[in-house]
Amino acid sequence: MQQSRFLIVLGGVIIVILAIWMSIFIVYPRQQVAIKRFGQIIRVEQHPGLYFKVPLVDVTVTVDNRILRYDLPTENIQVRGGAYYEVDAFFMYRITDPKLFLQKVQTGQPSYVETNNLAPRFVDALRAVYGKREFKSALSAERAEMMREVQQQFSQDAGSLGITIVDVRIRKTDLSDAVSEDIYKQMAAERLAAAERIRARGQQERDRIVAEANREYVEIVASAARDGDILRGEGQAESTRIMMDAMKYNPSLYVFWEAMDKYSKIGATPWIISPDEPFFQFIHKPPAQLTR
User: Fold this and answer.
1) In a 3-state reduction of DSSP, which class is residue 266?
2) Which pTM was predicted?
3) Which residues partner with 176 through β-bridges?
4) How far apart are alpha carbons 165 and 151 in whole angstroms?
5) How confident is the model at residue 290, as a pLDDT?
6) Which listed site, 77, 181, 186, 217, has its alpha carbon 20 to 30 Å from 160?
7) Does the pLDDT of residue 292 top 50, yes or no?
8) Distance (Å, whole) CA 47 – CA 151
9) What is the pLDDT of residues 57-76, one digit of tens each?
10) Radius of gyration of the chain (CA)
């Protein structure tokens, strides 16, 4: 009889311990736990600690409380004008409304929601933001603004799943091979056009410098010719004055000097003339006295 009572008490104790053990659950710092009763979420525990539930009736579902990251596979994104970029991006998110998250995502697995829900919406946001802009925008300072727009638009879609988008980053934006070739040709054409403009400006500057130099040359030559004519005129006038003074002072010396000057100018020119001509008077008969 006593043994039966002992077994009954022991069984009761075991049942109580099991009931207590089954009614206790722990929420860790990296977790948040939703309690379901008959398939309906009755409450959510988001803070670390020890909590209780109704055993055999309530079911706990653990939801990650960490900031999670998803790297998007490289996507071809079209911009305005028809060109394509190869975009490498990622986003970071956190499940902030576990109840809404579990209502929208039955599995409650982040990997499932990343692939089937978040990634397509992220791509849609990228396409919408890139599609409104010109080709060079993603390679300029406008890139930061583009990331903010992507995050804002993406956050609205993710919010309907109980998810908050913490950050969005576009790590790399590359040109596709076809676009790279077109850009290279465009850049080459632009460089050639710039070179032609520089050459044209250089030719124009050269022509201006040459014209200026020619003008200065003409002015210098004209000025030198004018000064030369003036100096020659002055020299001839002075020579004439000196000769006139010499003629007045000693006429015979002047006549002799003039004859010698004519003799010196004959050179090798053949002449047919009589030796008795007065032209040769100083050769046949030099003047006895040239000065007074």
Assistant:
1) helix
2) 0.54
3) none
4) 7
5) 46
6) 77
7) no
8) 27
9) 888 888 888 999 999 888 88
10) 56
Give yes or no for a contact between 78 and 123, defined as CB atoms under 8 angstroms apart: no
For tokens 């638009």, the residue is 153
Pick the CATH number of 68-175 from 3.30.479.30, 3.40.50.10490, 3.40.50.880, 3.90.245.10: 3.30.479.30
How far lies 80's CA from each of 76, 83, 127, 136, in Å? 13, 7, 10, 10
Enter the DSSP assignment of 272: -
- In sequence order, the β-bridge partners of residue 40 are 37
Tokens 């003074």 belong to: 245
Task: Give the helix ranges, DSSP H, for the chain.
Answer: 2-23, 98-104, 110-113, 119-131, 143-159, 177-249, 251-266, 281-284
27 CB contacts (<8 Å, ≥6 apart)?
Answer: 33, 45, 46, 47, 48, 49, 50, 51
Beta carbons of 89 and 146 less than 8 angstroms apart: no
Place of tokens 């803070």: 47
Closest CA to 64 of 27, 9, 106, 16: 27
Cβ atoms within 10 Å, residue 68: 18
Structure tokens at 238: 């002075």
According to the per-residue pLDDT averaged within each range, which of 6-10, 203-207, 262-266 is highest? Answer: 203-207
